[in-house]
Amino acid sequence: MQFKYDVMCVVLVAIAITGNPALHAKTLPAAQPAAASSVTDSEVTVSSISATDVFPGDDVTLTGTGLDSKKAKFLIGKKPLKVKARTASEATVTLPAKVQSGPLILKVGKAATETPYQIRVFQAPVLKKVPGSAPKGGTLQVQGKGLSGVSQWQLGNVSLSVDDGAKNTDRKVTLRLPQNAPDEAAICAIVNGRRFPFNKNTITGVAPRIDQVLYLSPPDKKTRYFGIADGENLSETTTLKINGKSADVMLDTQNGKIALGFVYKKKLPKKTLKFVAANGPFASDPFEVDGKTMGFSIAAEELDKAVFREPPQLEMNRIRRELESVEARMEGKCLWWSRTLASQSPKDAEMAKSMGECAGAYLEVMMWLRYYQGVLCRAMDDGTAAANANAEAGKMLTRSTADFIAVAEERLDQMWEKTTAGMASGGAEKKLQIGKTIDLMEKLVESRHYAQRSCENKTFTAEGGEQKSAKAIVTHDLESAF
Hints:
By secondary structure, this protein is α+β, with helices and mostly antiparallel strands. It contains nine helices and 27 strands.
């Protein structure tokens, strides 16, 4: 029995060594995968990573060993990373959309191992709405998602600061634009050094400012208005609207100042007027004027301090001499112009110059008549008790009012129409003459206020025995003719 047993063992050993052909055919396919793998599960490792500060959707490259094993999976927290490509030493993975910061985890089969690599995931901001224009030195509001994670804002390459006084959220952020902001560039959000530009440019510029307005209302039937607006950031391209209606403008640089001369072709109501200047899309704050002031935009109580400049040592004889001189010049300057006034418009430098000089002479006559009225009133005594004593001066004041209106109505209505027609276009000579005319108008308004102030609390007895207010005469004059 022992022998048989030994023989049987030898037979079994021989079969094991030489192999049974039928048995070998069945087991070979199962043995091949094991033979193809050069590493065990414990030999799948990650030794480095291309980036640890990432954004959703980024590709990251891992290096190590055994990374081609199909059992090897990669996660951040519980979020699996999609494998785009792999070899034994390198694997490229893509971060999913809603992944959060956390450690990189290597999972082989059911065994999960936390690697030493901590992944910081930054959320990419989404810029949905950015203004197409914004004023330099002002603010603009950006709308979108994920804005609270933005570390830096830029317009082009110029840094912008967040307006801490505004209510900023993850969806809305208000930014301040410096004066050196580029004229046109895209808003860019920067997160961890990565730039996220908006897909459209923002145009920047400087908004004008109106500080003071004066205007005159010529007594012509078409109710055109001449005026001047002083302020800042005014240029040849600045536009002007009065109560929402456009006015023709030109830049006035006379006497070292910069202002807008304007012509308004509509009737100005005697109510609050809103003047708005604009440089392209950048508009000034509305500047409000009381239409009843008939010219100056400042309050009556501020008039003396801000505008009124009393002419030094005005005497009646001097005013009479000035009037005679100006009237002589007016006759000479307006002779040629009056002959062609009805049939022609200013088309060349010669006509523009003649027109300006003629209009200037008319304005000067009215200006000195104003001063004449002021001196008459200063010669009167105050109060109603002095009405009889002021009778003679009152008669002269009334006559000067008639003279003033006669001068204004004679030819000035036509000159206003012709002059305003040339306001928007023409050469330098025409603009120069119009600028001089605007300056004379400003002086005329100041002389008007001089007369009005001088006639305060002055009463005179008229020819019919009626007591009249000297200021009322001037005020009535102001409303009917300037």
